[in-house]
Write a structure and sequence with these properties.
Elements: E1 14-19, E2 26-32, E3 35-41, H1 46-61, E4 82-86, H2 96-112, E5 133-134, E6 137-138, H3 144-155, E7 162-165, E8 174-176, E9 181-183, E10 190-193, H4 209-227, H5 231-238, H6 243-246
Antiparallel strand pairs: 1-2, 2-3, 3-4, 5-6, 7-10, 8-9
Helix pairs in contact: 3-4, 4-5
Keywords: Kinase, Transferase
GO molecular function: kinase activity
Protein name: Ser/Thr protein kinase RdoA (MazF antagonist)
Length: 247
């Protein structure tokens, strides 16, 4: 149906201007019931979107600043691949203190979602020690030597507690004000080991050297696998060290 689905949020619902939302979705600033909002149109399944919208509503109730799904006129939280969410003002983190606040927000996310069920169709990094596919990941498409390096990096996370990770923590997905840190664009969120979210500028999460190395190598391996095959994924794979050096 495409953007025609926006009419389900009201006859006056309208698109205003496109926003950057990555290659997987078409994201626009929209107006719904007279207020600014964000519409994201993609190809995720209903089960996938149900998982994400349930998560966001839960995090909002628990006090985290996140985009909250706005129901259609009929009460649905998504329709035909379209989700409409509240618009959050703010700017990106710029200083070490800002990134420290981001780290604190991420740790609260991780605390609140321990034991959360996996996003439908997704795999965690440690699941991929044995599985070969999960949503956008297909290890069979990667060079065998690269897969071995990625799995060696992920093996260092084995046995750790899992929770929801944001999955795409870059400055553009943070909206900061003096009073709060908001995390937006949850399209890559899933259940995994928390450390994958915490490889932040200036080591804002405060890892010791070994813990930072484990997290950074596992994160590079994840981004190589989830983005394969393009220039960025090749760059990230090049950062994952040879198997012997990780043991």
């Amino acid at each position: 149906m495409g953007w025609e689905a926006l009419r389900q949020w009201g006859v006056d619902a309208t698109r205003i201007e496109p926003l950057s939302g990555g290659a997987a979705n078409d994201v626009w600033r929209v107006r719904v019931a007279g207020r600014l909002a964000v519409g994201r149109l993609g190809v995720r399944s209903d089960a996938d979107l149900a998982w994400e919208t349930r998560l966001l509503r839960y995090l909002d109730r628990e006090g985290l600043a996140v985009p909250v799904p706005i129901p259609t006129a009929g009460g649905r939280l998504f329709a035909d691949g379209l989700v409409v969410m509240t618009y959050l003002e703010g700017g990106p983190p710029e200083t070490p203190a800002d990134w420290g606040r981001v780290a604190g927000t991420l740790r609260e996310l991780h605390r609140l979602t321990r034991g959360w069920p996996q996003r439908p169709g997704w795999r965690s990094s440690t699941d991929l020690l044995h599985a070969t596919t999960g949503t956008r990941i297909d290890l069979g498409a990667m060079p065998a030597e690269g897969v071995a390096r990625c799995r060696a990096a992920w093996a260092r996370l084995a046995g750790r507690e899992t929770c929801v990770v944001h999955g795409d923590l870059n400055p553009g997905n943070v909206r900061m004000t003096a009073n709060r840190v908001a995390l937006i664009d949850w399209d890559e969120s899933h259940v995994d080991v928390a450390d994958l979210d915490l490889v932040l500028p200036g080591n804002a999460a405060g890892f010791d050297d070994e813990a930072y190395d484990i997290a950074a190598q596992a994160s590079a391996a994840w981004e190589a696998a989830v983005c394969w095959d393009d220039a960025y994924s090749a760059k990230r794979l090049a950062e994952v060290r040879a198997v012997d050096s990780l043991l």
